[in-house]
């Protein structure tokens, strides 16, 4: 404990956060609203409730969100150590799949992007939007029931002059940059006690001062607040607010279409690892953090701040620029990336794989023949792959598959560029109405998702969203294939197709030139391995568990419903009866 106070900034914050957490921990029942009297959380809540009644509307975003009470979190505690700052640790053994944290946001702000977003409900609006009657800022409708656009904010935004602007696009861009820090400052004004809590979070203020971001904040936030909004602001405070937001805010899908960035005090204490042991969702107004693997008492909890389908170099660069640290997790320190070889390329001399240099050397090395390769040669190959990936033909899965096959030969089957293209092809196919997808493309989805699930087992092990989404796409493809088989030969549950003499077609043979949807040849091949409805139902049950808190859960439920209906179809019933009879005979 002593050394905690060696770092004053961190130590002060730690004390405050631990106090905050203690009050939360002391209320175990997730449905109980009562907090210990005079506790920090209770004080915050009481003050908030008084405001809620007396100042309706003035700072609507803070209303309700301020009910930042996280309850019953006996699973975690906060610790501190010099290289990592504060972090959450398992206070007891935690089982894979257990919910570790459930927390309401302190505040929600819009994402920084140039797209107009409804100020009141945070729905991205595209080109067609209506302006707020008063300030002219984007709203999905003048009667939007969203509560984020409070009166004070509206009055300030009026001063930007969006209504009469000749260049609305640039006004909206500026507004999107300003809005996050502006809402934080309004929250401080409305609820001064939030200031201390917010500033207990890390801002990397000093490091940011030396970086380009500092000039950006000075120009587009501090100066814009002064000149456009006519506010007198403390530049240091604004920089710190922006630092806290950039370091701690979670990008969220608020529901299936609304998006935002939000601050969660305790969830912010989770450090990063590219091989995380927990994952987070936003579900029914709460951050839900779930253990993806078993975590033993005393182990730090890690979520991932980055993308598992990126190679080490890209992940580390992203973390170092956006979160100001050099990741030294197991995956980052291993040039084979845990044996996945997602950044390796095939050796031209032998069957081996050439792995990227680690911090100690500058050349790439084959793990089999030991050949050393100059970094420039391999990097230009990877760059060419990245360019091809960024120009992948849209709505042309055959074309995309050709590129994929070419890059597989150049970069290897598991390379991160190849993996990202595989996932992009899966999404391009499966996001179309399934009735319009050729059987060949459905087959492709099955093959690619199987390969990606194998990869996911290494880079995102356990109960994870990525596995859930891959399994969902695979099950959707299988169930469409199965239905086509049943429709093509309903009398015998598709088995006559199995006995047919058609040519076996495999997804790897290349693109289909015909757009014939009911491609019986392919069905012949696949009816040999098509899972039964029961098998697909158990796959869906796994998806339901994995995606329990995901916005795509309704799709899983719908798929389960469709499969249950299929189970009742005469062809499947007949098949099951015959199956049961032959089992009895056997
Ligand atoms: C959301 S905060 C996490 C809590 C933070 N450690 C604190 O004390 O407030 C993110 C910051 O934590 C630090 N951090 C997170 N993961 C880390 C890691 N694996 N190694 C080193 N620092 C890390 C970085 O400074 C990063 O910008």
Automatic annotation (TrEMBL):
Classification via PROSITE patterns: SET
Database matches in Gene3D superfamilies: 1.10.220.160, 6.10.140.2220, SET domain
InterPro entries xref list: SET_dom, SET_dom_sf, SET_SmydA-8
GO molecular function: N-methyltransferase activity; protein methyltransferase activity; S-adenosylmethionine-dependent methyltransferase activity
A Pfam family reported for this protein in Swiss-Prot or TrEMBL: SET
Domain SET: 74-306
PANTHER family assigned to the protein according to its UniProt record, in alphabetical order: SET AND MYND DOMAIN CONTAINING, ARTHROPOD-SPECIFIC, MEMBER 2 (PTHR46455:SF1), SET AND MYND DOMAIN CONTAINING, ARTHROPOD-SPECIFIC, MEMBER 4, ISOFORM A (PTHR46455)
Protein's name in the database: SET domain-containing protein
């Amino acid at each position: 404990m002593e050394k905690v106070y060696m770092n004053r900034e961190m130590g002060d914050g730690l004390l405050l956060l631990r106090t905050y957490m203690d009050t939360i921990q002391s209320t175990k029942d997730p449905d109980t609203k009562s907090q210990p009297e005079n506790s920090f959380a209770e004080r915050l809540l009481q003050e908030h409730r008084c405001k809620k009644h007396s100042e309706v509307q003035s700072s609507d975003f803070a209303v309700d969100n301020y009910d930042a009470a996280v309850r019953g979190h006996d699973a975690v505690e906060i610790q501190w150590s010099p290289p990592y700052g504060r972090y959450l640790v398992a206070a007891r053994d935690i089982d894979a799949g257990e919910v570790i944290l459930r927390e309401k946001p302190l505040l929600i702000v819009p994402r920084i992007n140039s797209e107009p977003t409804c100020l009141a409900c945070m729905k991205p609006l595209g080109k067609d939007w209506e302006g707020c009657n008063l300030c002219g800022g984007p709203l999905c409708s003048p009667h939007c029931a969203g509560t984020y656009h409070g009166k004070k904010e509206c009055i300030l935004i009026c001063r930007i002059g969006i209504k009469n602007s000749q260049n609305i696009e640039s006004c909206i861009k500026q507004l999107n940059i300003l809005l996050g820090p502006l809402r934080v400052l309004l929250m401080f004004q409305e609820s001064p006690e939030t200031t201390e809590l917010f500033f207990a979070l890390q801002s990397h203020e000093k490091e940011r001062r030396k970086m380009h971001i500092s000039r950006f904040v000075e120009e587009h936030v501090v100066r814009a607040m002064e000149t456009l909004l006519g506010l007198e602001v403390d530049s240091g405070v604004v920089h710190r607010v922006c630092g806290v937001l950039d370091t701690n805010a979670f990008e969220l899908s608020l529901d299936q279409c609304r998006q935002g960035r939000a601050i969660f005090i305790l969830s912010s204490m989770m450090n990063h690892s590219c091989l995380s042991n927990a994952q987070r969702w936003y579900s029914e107004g709460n951050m839900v953090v779930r253990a993806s693997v078993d975590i033993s008492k005393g182990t730090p909890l890690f979520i991932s701040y980055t993308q598992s389908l990126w190679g080490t170099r890209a992940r580390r660069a992203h973390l170092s620029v956006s979160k100001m640290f050099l990741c030294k997790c197991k995956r980052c320190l291993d040039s084979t990336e845990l044996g996945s070889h997602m950044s390796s390329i095939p050796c031209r001399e032998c069957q081996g794989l050439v792995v990227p240099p680690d911090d100690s050397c500058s050349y790439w090395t084959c793990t089999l023949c030991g050949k050393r390769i100059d970094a420039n040669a391999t990097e230009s190959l990877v760059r060419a792959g990245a360019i091809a990936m960024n120009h992948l033909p849209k709505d042309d899965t055959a074309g995309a598959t050709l590129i994929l096959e070419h890059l597989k030969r150049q970069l290897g089957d598991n390379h991160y560029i190849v993996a990202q293209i595989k996932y992009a092809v899966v999404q391009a196919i499966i996001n179309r109405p399934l009735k319009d997808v050729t059987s060949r493309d459905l087959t492709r989805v099955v093959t690619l998702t199987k390969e990606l699930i194998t990869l996911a087992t290494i880079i995102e092990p356990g109960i994870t969203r990525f596995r859930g989404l891959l399994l969902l796409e695979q099950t959707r493809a299988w169930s469409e294939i199965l239905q086509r088989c049943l429709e093509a030969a309903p009398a015998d549950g598709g088995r006559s197709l199995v006995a047919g003499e058609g040519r076996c077609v495999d997804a790897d043979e290349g693109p289909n030139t015909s757009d014939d949807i009911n491609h019986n040849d392919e069905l012949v091949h696949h009816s040999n391995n098509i899972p039964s409805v029961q098998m697909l139902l158990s796959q869906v049950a796994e998806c339901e568990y994995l995606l329990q808190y995901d916005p795509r859960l309704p799709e899983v439920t719908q798929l389960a419903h469709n499969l249950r209906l299929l189970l009742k179809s005469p062809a499947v019933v007949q098949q099951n009866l015959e199956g049961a009879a032959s089992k009895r005979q056997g």
